[in-house]
Amino acid sequence: MPIDFGNVPRGRSGSEEEIERLGTAYKLKRKKFQSEICRLKSKTWAELIGTIDRDPSLLYRLVLSRLRTASPSLTEILEEDVLERLLDSLFPRNTLPDPRSD
Predict the structure, then answer these.
(1) Mean of the per-residue pLDDT values for the chain?
(2) Domain that holds residue 20
(3) I want to staple 76 with a disulfide (CB 3.0 to 4.6 A). Which of 24, 70, 72, 100 is the partner?
């Protein structure tokens, strides 16, 4: 919905009545614009709910996509030596001799 502000002069060169009229018109159009945004948000929300009812996996994908971008991963946060010690304790390296190569 395009907004038409009509013939709006730049600056405050108009009379007090003109400024008052334009201010009132601006407030009215702004209120209409905000109510249109609210109406479209409600409509879109209802469509999203309907889509989730038809495809329950969509909700799972939406939540995961929000969670992934919310914070960096644990490997990005930890210092390199701490991460290496943690990985070594969880997944010990094979220090036994390899019978195939011996």
Answers:
(1) 82
(2) 16-90
(3) 72
